[in-house]
Specification:
about 160 residues, Transposase, IS402-like_dom, mainly alpha
């Protein structure tokens, strides 16, 4: 079963050689491509890890690999290398537009009652629920940016 966000052969040719290799001390690793496709599926659909379809392999394996690569900086390294390759090929546009518009608050905004902010509802596993929907034709740098964005909050407790 292929998901609409699975890695193409061209994307895999770029990404595959950059991935860590097994040290064979912990046994054989599940195929990186299958695991990354599982992570792509989760990022694209927003499903919980326990709802990951079976063709992507054991959900625990996919989740642990995502966490491991989040904490050791693998996602950020992959993003930097893919961006550098795209920049060298002239495929990356670094133009940035900044909007300096300022908006005045309503006159009654200053006197609002001081209530503590409400926390968003959490899922049963303690992670905030997110609704992430990526486009069907996602590019590899955008995928890696999303992986890095989601990895940063989960990597913070492990670093501390």
């Amino acid at each position: 079963m292929l998901s609409r966000g699975d890695l193409t052969d061209a994307e895999w040719a770029v990404l595959g050689p950059l991935l860590p290799v097994s040290n064979n001390r912990c046994g054989r690793w599940r195929d990186h491509r299958q695991v990354i496709n599982g992570i792509i599926h989760r990022l694209g659909t927003g499903v919980q890890w326990r709802e990951l379809p079976e063709p992507f392999g054991p959900r625990k394996t996919v989740h642990k690999r995502h966490l491991r690569w989040s904490t050791d900086g693998t996602w950020e390294m992959l993003l930097q290398r893919v961006q550098a390759a795209a920049d060298a090929g002239g495929d990356l546009d670094w133009n940035v537009n900044v909007d300096s518009t300022s908006v005045r608050a309503h006159q009654h905004a200053a006197g609002a009652p001081k209530k503590p902010p409400t926390t968003p509802p959490r899922s049963s596993k303690g992670a905030p629920q997110r609704s992430v929907h990526l486009h069907a034709h996602i590019t590899l740098p955008l995928l890696l940016e999303e992986a890095v964005r989601q990895a940063r909050p989960s990597a913070a407790p492990a670093a501390g």
